[in-house]
Amino acid sequence: MASAARPDDATKRRALAEAAEWFAEWQADELSPAQRERWQAWLEASDTHHWAWQQVEGVSRRFTANLDESERQTAGSVIRSARQQRRGRWHLLSGFSSLAIAAVLAGLSWQWTPLPQWVAYWSADYRTATGDITRIELEDGTQVWLSSASALDVDYDHQRRRLQLVAGEVLVVTGDDPERPLYVDTRSARLTPLGTRFSVRQRQADELLAVFDGAVAIHTHGDADHASQRQVVDAGQQASYSANGISELTSADGSRAAWANGVLLAESMSLATFVSELSQHHHGRLEVDPAVANLTLLGAFPLNDLERTLHMVETTLPVRVRQVMPWWIKIEAAEPAVQ
Amino acid sequence: MGNDRLAETTAYYTGCRDSLGQLYYHHQPWLQQLLSRRLGCGESAADLAQDAFVRLLQTPRHLDSFDGARAYLSRMAKGLCVDYWRRLDIERAWQEALAARAEVHLPSAEHQQIIIETLCEIDHMLARLPEKVATAFLASQLHGKPYRQIAEELGVSERMVKKYMAQAMLQCALIEAGFEASL
């Protein structure tokens, strides 16, 4: 490029600074004829000004040339997310116990989230970053625990109480209000709880409702091919559902609610499932070697202390935890024991 | 280091293949080890070390001594690691964004490469800017938002947005013009 520096560097830098000022003017508004004349005069005052303006145009092109409209929209969030990731990592480089810091838009749980949902997430009334668990108490005494990377809208008026799960998972303990019914709307159904404690989680293909006290009625929205369905789920039961319908009821997994206390409860849980649950609460990549994915775990593990959790896994199973990159952890088979 | 005495009198010019060969011979294993420690991955370290020498060939430099060369290479290694991580971040965020809109038509693999390249360039240009300045610039250049809207979103005045824009553009233009390289 302009390495053959005839005009000295200071002159060029000054010209670039002026060009940048003009650029900011251009972006602000239509320039007035007078301004336009001044800009023209500035441009023609020297070759260096011309050169500087070309650099500005070059930069501008980089933002648009290879990207179509929808890609530009995505590009903005990709870059912001990468920047946030990076800020999180400066803490990380000193050791991986702090994997769960920094709010990052893109956690693993986002992989299935349709793009407009990002907007919904950021504009939701309550949201948690990856690794955070928050408890909210609403005006009617309803308590909600928001799991990692989750978002919830609260919409109460004098006729009804409506919660909208925007992303992730919530555990709800309903408060009493005989006047106003409580609904929880999820992507594919309306849930009507009746004095109860339950959790609901949005997953890639479906949603999982587990009821611990009382009962919850699922009312799926249905879609063009599937009629809407209704099902009451009683305490101790769980069901998965989507727009397609509602699965058979199975017994509720009590450990599903343990995250509200910051604990991951594994009762004969496969290592693969364990890691996928754990991933919901941590940034970075957690990977398990298929060779050990089917080993089963039993125990209570702290969700907010990844280093300790992984160490516990290492001591209970014949595996070793390897940190491939500062943000990438892999669990693989331990070296065969030396005799 | 047994070759210290000899090393003191060593100077390199990286635009000349022989001299670059010397540099490679004296410093490549050290550089690769340094990168490997920083990245925790031997394979990427070998690639990055290779990159470093390719860059030195493309943009020749005089390195006046053995120690001078090490100092320069070590600064270069730092820059390479930063670029490498930056690129991984972008690739990862891009993959996530793609997965998020799974049902929509996906760009071809080649086109995705071009997009990722573009994103890396943009990311690189904005890397040193404060958050609000970068956010304002992205909002304007990628999303075509007017200053008024950006000002509202960031909670600053329109005047301030204009300042941010000039600041961001200057930083980008300096890089575009080759005044500020990745080192």
From TrEMBL, chain A:
Q: This protein's superkingdom? A: Bacteria
Q: Give UniProt keywords alphabetically.
A: Membrane, Transmembrane, Transmembrane helix
FecR N-terminal domain residues are 18-57
Which residue spans adopt a coiled-coil conformation according to this UniProt entry? none
Q: Where are the transmembrane segments?
A: 90-112
Gene Ontology molecular function: any one: sigma factor antagonist activity
- Boundaries of every FecR protein domain copy: 125-216
The record's annotation in PANTHER family points to: PERIPLASMIC SIGNAL SENSOR AND SIGMA FACTOR ACTIVATOR FECR-RELATED, PROTEIN FECR
Name this protein carries in UniProt: Protein fecR
List the lineage, top down: Bacteria, Pseudomonadati, Pseudomonadota, Gammaproteobacteria, Oceanospirillales
TrEMBL record, chain B:
> Which Gene Ontology terms cover its molecular function?
DNA binding; sigma factor activity
Q: Where is the RNA polymerase sigma-70 region domain?
A: 23-88
| One family name in Pfam for this protein | Sigma70_r2
Q: Which GO terms describe its biological process?
A: DNA-templated transcription initiation
Q: Where is the RNA polymerase sigma factor 70 region 4 type domain?
A: 121-172
Q: Which UniProt keywords apply?
A: Sigma factor, Transcription, Transcription regulation
Q: Does the keyword Ubl conjugation apply?
A: no
Xref: NCBIfam families: sigma70-ECF
Q: Which family does it belong to?
A: Belongs to the sigma-70 factor family. ECF subfamily.
Q: What is this protein called?
A: RNA polymerase subunit sigma-24
Species of origin: Vreelandella nigrificans
